[in-house]
């Protein structure tokens, strides 16, 4: 039986550093910029994308990419953070094609500091648009940064100013209100669920289950793995994908419970070729 581990234990002689080890990351505010740092214990990562959001749950956008990740301490500088809360996390892709997400971290910038930053920046004056002239948009090429002289980090450019044309104000007299027609409807009875009812139970999967002794998630696929393309994805309670394995090469696989980052109920979708073979839930304890 083959055991699939996405988390690897650090070597016994690995020295303790200030930067947290993946999947944990650290956000530090330095003046008007935010520096994201982490320690990478893996030598099989293909790409790391840095994402940012204002609410920690959704609306994450990619603001930079580490092209050639290496083992050891790494960091990324966000020169244009948002005023108030900034939530960051890493989207990690391994050479095997497995996708993984780090734990989010929070960095807070006072709005007064952001207002002072904007006040010190020069304001670009755009000439009015006429039939014979067009406004010139200043070029803002992508900024290039360096991670401790090891590799390049591509940062997305700051947003360009947008010229907004205010249309003429047109006042339209609203039509007179229509007469109100009152209709009597029959009485409707609404039934509520009994709070003392038994909780919902999950249908037992034919292929995936949780080992009661180890707590790991075990998978037992049919013997046609070599002739069919099997893949699986796991999602958390908010339906965010935790990780996926795009190709399963063995019929007996154990997923280490540390891949799921915390206890709870997770949804999975198992596919054979392009057809969904099974979907269900597992509870990691």
Structure description:
This protein is mostly beta strands and 285 residues long. Among the domains are: 15-115 and 144-155, Sandwich (Immunoglobulin-like); 208-284, Immunoglobulin-like, CATH 2.60.40. The chain is built from one helix and 18 strands. β2 and β3 (33-40) form a beta hairpin. Mean pLDDT is 74; it is low at 1-17 and 118-170.
Question: How would you summarize what this structure contains?
Answer:
The protein has one helix and 18 strands. By secondary structure, it is mostly beta strands.
CATH superfamily of the domain at 15-115 and 144-155: Immunoglobulins
- The end-to-end distance, rounded to whole angstroms, is 22 Å
CATH topology of the domain at 15-115 and 144-155: Immunoglobulin-like
* Rough outline: globular
Major sheet attributes: 11 strands, antiparallel
The oligomeric state is single chain
**What Rg, in angstroms, do the CA atoms define?**
27 Å
Q: Helices and strands: which structural class?
A: mainly beta
Number of strands: 18
Order of helices and strands: EEEEEEEEEHEEEEEEEEE
Average of per-residue pLDDT values? 74
Helical stretch count? 1
Could you estimate the helical fraction of the residues in percent?
under 10%
CATH class of the domain at 15-115 and 144-155: Mainly Beta
């Amino acid at each position: 039986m083959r055991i699939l581990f996405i988390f690897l234990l650090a070597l016994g002689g690995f020295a303790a550093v200030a930067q947290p080890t993946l999947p944990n990351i650290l956000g530090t505010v330095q003046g008007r910029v935010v520096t994201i740092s982490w320690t990478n214990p893996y030598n099989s990562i293909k790409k790391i994308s840095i994402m940012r959001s204002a609410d920690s749950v959704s609306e994450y956008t990619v603001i930079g990419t580490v092209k050639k990740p290496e083992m050891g301490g790494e960091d990324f500088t966000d020169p244009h953070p948002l005023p108030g809360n900034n939530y960051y996390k890493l989207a990690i892709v391994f050479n095997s094609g497995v996708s993984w997400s780090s734990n989010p971290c929070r960095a807070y910038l006072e709005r007064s500091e952001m207002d002072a930053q904007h006040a010190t920046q020069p304001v670009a004056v755009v000439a009015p648009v006429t039939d014979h002239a067009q406004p010139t948009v200043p070029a803002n090429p992508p900024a290039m940064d360096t991670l401790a002289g090891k590799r390049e980090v591509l940062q997305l450019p700051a947003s360009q100013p947008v010229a907004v044309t205010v249309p003429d104000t047109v006042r339209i007299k609203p039509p007179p209100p229509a007469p109100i027609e009152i209709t009597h409807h029959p009485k409707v009875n609404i039934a509520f669920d009994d709070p003392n009812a038994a909780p919902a139970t999950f249908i037992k999967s034919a292929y995936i289950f949780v080992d009661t002794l180890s707590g790991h998630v075990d998978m037992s696929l049919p013997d046609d793995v070599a002739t069919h393309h099997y893949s699986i994805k796991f999602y958390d309670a908010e339906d965010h994908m935790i990780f996926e394995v795009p190709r399963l090469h063995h019929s007996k696989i154990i997923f280490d419970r540390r891949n799921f980052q915390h206890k709870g109920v997770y949804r999975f979708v198992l596919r054979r070729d392009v057809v969904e073979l099974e979907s269900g839930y597992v509870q990691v304890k």
